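Continuing the series of single-chain predictions for the mutant panel. This is the parent chain; the variants come on the following pages.
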Amino acid sequence: MAECIRLDRDCAEACWGAAAWMSRDSQFAADLCRLCAEVCDACGAECEKHEVEHCKRCAEECHRCADECRQMAGAGV
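Parent structure:
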């Protein structure tokens, strides 16, 4: 589960960064949101490999977050 934990941390930091950049109306926020979506999808895919309940919930939330990030990136944040 080492990769799962690593991706969980990457995902959380990417989301935190995207939120911060959007809050200050950074010209690069849309780019970071696109990257955040990729990280969230990777995290969700990794979590789906595990039969543990918290991993299943994490995978669902990661994919939901990825969808939101793609919407934010497309909105020209």
